[in-house]
Amino acid sequence: INLSQPDTIDERAINKKKLTAFTRSENLDLALNSASAIGCTVVNIGSQDLIDGKPHLVLGLLWQIIKVGLFSDIEISRNEALIGLLSDEEELGQLMKLSPEELLLRWVNYHLNNA
Hints:
By secondary structure, the chain is mainly α.
């Protein structure tokens, strides 16, 4: 989670030595709470689901964490080249209001149209 959003989890809070079933569960609860804090949808998933390795829950959560990290760089202030995505009748303020998903979709469509 800290790779997607740095300093989300205080590393001192992670149990690292002599892990028991209880401390592993604590670590996973910390990860789930932190995932929720960075914007992941963590509904009906608990530490036991991760321990059991339920593929649809583990992969769904993992994808959300990766997506948060990847989309954190998609903003106009970090990538001024995205200003080129403005349409003729659009103002910069409107473009800046777009979500990272919408900007990415606009970028892909822009390049498809100009290919």
